[in-house]
Write a structure and sequence with these properties.
The protein has 512 residues and is of the alpha/beta class. It has 15 helices and 26 strands. The protein has a domain at 407-504: ANL, C-terminal domain (GMP Synthetase, Chain A, domain 3, 2-Layer Sandwich). Strand 12, helix 10 and strand 13 (277-280) form a beta-alpha-beta unit.
């Protein structure tokens, strides 16, 4: 199956059902299907079809779905750029991934126009959603009188159709090249094992430029024929309104978004009585938060998933295991190969900690024009190293210990920040936290924490330090705790530990 067929099959089955909703905008599956065809044919007519790289820079807006499916049908490779990128980051990504044309939401176009002379390979800037600045063209002008007929392009499941960019939580984003097959399979697995219902109204509250928001959640909704309500930017109060007034029943969220809902001053379970299904992933969910989610919203079916840009979605934890496997990230999808390797790429037995690896059709084709970086994560026999450290239990459930890049090595011992964070989250005063390593001349590194307190709840550094020391080995306690108003996050909502950590390592030759 090809990406474009996910939409065309649903449009044939449910032509008049609402597909996309945003405010007063509504688009049926038939209308979305025809809009995608027009865009695909326009790309082909303008010489930007198969063999060409294009990009989209936009929040969740009504044109995004048609551009996505249309590009896939044309054979073009569509790069999905974060709206949080600086001008310099935009420039580096556009140049590095050979983008010839970029489709940009109107309020983001000004910056692109200002730097366009520095990107000779970028031939066209096409604006949608509002007025185009001087020198740019509008999407309507670009599409013109393009046909609504399905484009006649020979495509293979192995063809590249998208580039997504890694989250930037450990460094500058890398371009992940995905084939049709690699992202269709993730959608089919989600349909089979997520326990979504055909009548659910989806909320797309995470960005479509992120793998989980687009390939896992959005695509699955399209495949199943759900109505998808777009959120241009995250707002907990707005989410609660969408449940109350727009009939949203199902959502995918990053754990920080769920925290924003259940800790919101206007939160009430009654307001969210229509919310029946909560899928979450994209970052670790602390055990204490999982317990709170089940306590305050007992009627919600909670399903955790885990994956990454390079390999798509890998695991799912069904709701019946929320309590018995509360600390796990779920088990592998039924037809997916996954293992734990040691540092010599040898499989480890049940219960032993090592690096999570996986192989199969779901893997990326590679990092764009970066064979050396690709070789660093791919083994000769087809396994991809995820960079995540964990173990599998006797039932095949995955327990993530930490990111390999986040491990603190103190006096030769490995300290896993996630273990400390899970303890901190159990303290009633802690709303959010991030644990990371800071330099120490004797130990090499020591654990430190930035903490955001709950509103109107006070705590002292000593209180939190003693709280942690009483629950885990004393040498793992944070040697520095700093109270902050907020933690820096990516556009998806992941905490950017590298941005916090780097401040403490400035001026040093090494960062370990």
């Amino acid at each position: 199956m090809l990406i474009g067929e996910l939409l065309s099959e649903t449009a044939e089955r449910l032509p008049d059902k609402r597909a996309i909703v945003l405010g007063g905008f509504t688009q049926t599956y038939r209308e979305l299907d025809l809009a995608a065809n027009r865009f695909a044919n326009a790309l082909i007519n303008e010489g930007l079809g198969k063999g060409h790289n294009i990009a989209i820079l936009s929040p969740n807006q009504p044109d995004y779905p048609a551009l996505y499916f249309g590009a896939a049908r044309s054979g073009a490779v569509l790069g999905h750029m974060s709206v949080r990128l600086s001008a310099e980051e935009q420039k580096k990504i556009i140049i590095a991934t050979d983008i010839e044309a970029i489709f940009v939401y109107f309020n983001l176009a000004k910056t692109l126009m200002e730097i366009s002379d520095d990107m000779p390979g970028l031939k066209r800037i096409i604006v949608f959603g509002g007025a185009a600045p001087a020198g740019a063209e509008t999407l309507d002008e670009f599409i013109g009188a393009a046909s609504e007929a399905a484009p006649d392009v020979l495509l293979s499941e192995d063809d590249a159709f998208a580039i997504t960019y890694t989250g930037g939580t450990t460094g500058f984003p890398k371009g992940v090249v995905a084939s049709h097959a690699s992202r269709v399979i993730g959608c089919l697995r989600a349909e089979r094992e997520f326990q979504i219902q055909a009548g659910d109204v989806f909320c797309c509250s995470t960005p479509l430029f992120h793998i989980a928001g687009l390939f896992v959640w959005f695509q699955t909704g399209i495949r199943m024929g759900n109505t998808l309500v777009l959120m241009p930017h995250w707002d907990a109060e707005e989410f609660m309104r969408l449940v109350e007034e727009e009939g949203v029943t199902a959502s995918f969220m990053i754990p920080t978004q769920i925290n924003g809902v259940i800790s919101h001053p206007n939160f009430s379970a009654n307001r969210l009585k229509g919310w029946r299904y909560g899928n979450f992933g994209g970052a670790p969910n602390p055990v204490a938060q999982m317990e709170k989610m089940m306590e305050v919203l007992p009627h919600v079916t909670w399903v955790e998933q885990y994956g990454q840009s390079e390999s798509g979605n890998l695991t799912v934890r069904p709701p019946e295991f929320c309590r018995s496997k509360i600390a796990s990230a779920g088990r592998a999808f039924k037809d997916l190969e996954m293992a734990i390797f040691d540092d010599k790429d040898k499989p480890l037995p049940v219960g032993e900690t090592g690096e999570l690896v996986t192989r199969g059709v779901h893997l990326m084709a590679g990092y764009y024009k970066s064979p050396e970086l690709t070789a660093e994560v791919m083994t000769e026999d087809g396994w991809i190293r995820t960079g995540d450290v964990g173990y599998l239990d006797e039932d095949g459930f995955l327990y993530l210990v930490d990111r390999s890049k986040d491990v603190i090595i103190s006096g030769g011992e490995n300290i896993y920040p996630m273990e400390i964070e899970n303890v901190l989250y159990k303290h009633p005063a802690v709303n959010e936290c991030a644990v990371f390593g800071i330099p120490d001349d004797y130990w090499g590194e020591l654990p430190a924490a930035h903490v955001v307190l709950e509103a109107k709840i006070h705590a002292t550094v000593k209180e939190l330090s003693d709280f942690v020391a009483a629950k885990i080995a004393r040498h793992k306690r944070p040697r520095m705790i700093k109270f902050v108003r907020y933690l820096p996050k990516t556009a998806v909502g992941k905490i950017q530990k590298n941005a916090i950590r780097d401040e403490y390592w400035k001026g040093r030759d090494r960062k370990i």
